[in-house]
Amino acid sequence: MKEETIVLHTGHRRDETTTSVAVPIYQTTSYQFDNTEHASKLFSLQELGNIYTRIMNPTCAVLEERMAKLEGGVAAMAVSSGQAASTFSIQNICHSGDNFISSTDLYGGTWNLFNNTMKEMGIECRFVDPKKPEQFENAIDEKTRCIYGETLPNPKLQVFPIEEVGKIGKKHHVPLILDNTAAPYICKPLNHGANIVVYSTTKYIGGHGLSIGGLLIDGGNFDWEKAGDRFKMLNTPDPSYHGAVWSEAAKPLGPIAYILRARVILLRDLGSSMSPFNAFTFIQGLETLPLRMQRHCENAAEIADYLSKQDKVDKVIYPKLMSGDHLDRANKYMQKGHGALVGFELKDGVDAGKKFIDSLKLFYHVANIGDARSLAIHPSSTTHSQLSEDEKLSAGVTPGYIRLSIGLEHIDDLLEDLEQALNNS
Ligand code: PLP
Asked: pLDDT for 148-184, tens place per residue?
């Protein structure tokens, strides 16, 4: 099935009891066991089935199955936020004393998590500039458990070198985890060498700015057993689960050792599960994701072209307008569109940036991306205001930088709003 069909049909055709076509919201904490033997089999994983909504829920399961299929993965796990997804993606294979490598081009919240909170947990994050993919190899040692990046990181919007870094990971038995939040449907990281995909479903998957949520998707394409001692938590008996060896326990179920451990250990112990109601809102969003992404990308490309012709604009940051490796990667990995985030720099710096934002009438001024509505922010005076000038520049935030998240409105109305705001800036 193609993407447009998968998002409508995978994981649910009709409810077996009521024949409901829409996915029901299973708003329940618990599930009645048939008898004590059935309960015991579920707990020992001899049989798969519902036990308790912190660990699994039928509404969340539809979202998980659809997203796994859409990405070309083998299984997925829904969590309470994108931040929880990033945290779990690392914690599932990194213990205190281990390290992992991350791209420097990251969402600010992820940067804080990796640079500060993970450090407090005894997990070292080694940052590498993705402009030099070969440097990921230099940072790997015997305690390295994974490499982490974002496919389309803002504000730079330079597409991650997925294939180059994926090959380095494969050579050293280190999986590549990619946050694909900004590029669902248009980029399939698992097809190019990634092993695990992470999402903030808060953005394009939901698409309407309603709920906070996240997802982890297991590509099933990494040989955890072959990597041996590097992944003790998957390859040696787990004392917290009757000595289960996750790479063994997963065998009858498929290549799902990573997501199985994430579910039965991390969700069990740390919580952070997605609510069934939020899963329902994400399912509604997902059903129109392919259509929406096409329109998001068309509008964004047209706005990038328009901005690049304006006198008050110094530079437009959009993958289609880049050159060299950045353009090559955008064309190779994002054949269905170059995303809906557009950055631009106003010649007259901070004051012009603030005036521009304050003059917008249609664009919302919010710290979010991926809404059906168009959004704008001036990072230097908001999201990045706590950084030093040097830190801002290395993050790609110049004084006059404006970030736009282009929505689904009619292009003429968007262009009119941008024009009047530029005139006032
Ligand atoms: N990853 C990216 C690329 C993001 O933009 C965000 C939020 O802006 C997150 C992760 C965190 O997601 P959430 O806000 O759902 O926790």
From this structure: 999 999 999 999 999 999 999 999 999 999 999 999 9
Residue with tokens 């997902």: 286
CATH code of 377's domain:
3.90.1150.10
Report pTM. 0.97
Residues in the chain: 425
> Are both 26 and 52 inside the same structural domain?
yes
b/e burial code for range 105-134 (CB count within 10 A of at least 16 → b): bbbbebbebbeeebeeeebbbbebebeebe
Query: Cβ(180) to ligand 1 under 6 A?
Result: no
Instruction: Identify the domain containing residue 102 by its residue range.
Output: 3-284
**Are 346 and 270 in the same domain?**
no
Pocket test for ligand 1, best of 152, 187, 200 (most atoms within 8 A of CB): 200
**Among 99, 68, 90, 50, which residue's Cα sits nearest to residue 266?**
90
Over residues 6-28, the pLDDT tens digits come to 999 999 999 999 999 999 999 99
